[in-house]
Amino acid sequence: MQSGKQLRIRRVTSWQLVGAQLAHFRKLAGLTQAALAEEVGLGEDSIASIEQGRRALQMDLAVQLDELLETKGALQVAVAKIPRKERYQALVKDFVQYEQNAVSLSSYQSQLIPGLLQTEAYARFIFACNYPPLEEEEIEKRVADRLDRQRILERKPRPILHFILEESILHAKLGDPQVMLEQLLHLRRCMDLPFVTIQIMPRDTPQHAGLAGPLVLLETPDHDQLAYIDGQLRGELYDEPSDVSALTQRYGMLRSQALTVEESVRLLDALLAALLGESCPAQHTRPPAAPPSAGSSPATATATAATASKSPTTGTSPATATATAETASKSPPTPPPSTSATPR
Q: Which helix (H) or strand (E) holds 217?
């Protein structure tokens, strides 16, 4: 070995080994990537990504491939033996799949309405703002993908969803005012869903734990805890317990700093009323905190406060009803608002 030169060790991940196995079995079966993709109902690029170790092989697909390639469960065993620290791939496509199967999901957003709560028109405007500009076909594809993600809102069993939104998001003048009004109406309807909790972070909050930006926490069906942070070019998925714990603590502080559910509802109702020129003052001043009862521990007091902030609000406010009627009068006839949070 020449002096001064360091030997570069190429790190091979477990998913690359699984992918190499799949490629080997596929070739033994005399199939191309395109042919295998057609057999299992996937795109050729998906098979290529799995074989290269860039995308995780899900267990249900491993079962299907073992049967098709007659590999006697080899791929299932390989997937089952993936080390925990490599189990989750940090790819957006894979995160969306984890999101769809999540038992619970918590999301803090500082710039935009969360994708799971966006209307079609709002999502289309967001993608149209991308720079460098996207082709029209790509915009429509991304809008369709975003709406497809919202199937989680109709899934059974229902997931438990919690969102914290910056108040500034509600006041943003994005695109056509009608688009924003319809988005706010949709958000208000989502507040009435029993499995959805939405809190608003007031603009004048003196303490803020979310200055580092948005974050998403989710729990998988296997009760693994994941965290996802989106970036300018790509997102990053975290499954290391210490990382997830730190972000979970941060989210907990954000919940305590945000308005309660009832205060958040009143704030949005007031905003909707103001948009329609009605008299409905904002009522998002925090009520004075009740002193803890004698003998109660800080943990009990915290749990009591959390329970109070989680109390559901039912019914539709006059402002929401008026805004809905106003929207209908300005738009072509449409079906009545669905009780589902999925946009029409």
A: strand 215-219
The strand pair at 215-219 and 160-166 is best described as unpaired
Tell if the pTM clears 0.85, that is, is over it. Answer: no
Taking residue 184's Cβ as centre, other Cβ atoms within 10 Å add up to 23
Distant-in-sequence, close-in-space partners of 1: CB < 8 Å, separation ≥ 6: 7
Output DSSP code: residue 59. Answer: H
Domains of the chain: 14-85 (1.10.260.40), 92-283+312-330 (3.30.870)
Which tokens in the block code for residue 142? 């991304």
What are the backbone angles phi and psi of residue 228, rounded to the nearest 5°?
-135, 130
* CA pseudo-torsion sign 291, 282, 307, 105: negative
Residues contacting residue 173 through CB under 8 Å, at least 6 positions apart: 180
DSSP state of 288: P
- Mean pLDDT of each 10-residue bin along the chain, 344 residues long: 46 85 96 96 92 89 96 94 69 76 97 97 96 95 95 95 98 91 97 98 95 96 91 83 95 98 98 80 42 37 37 45 46 34 31
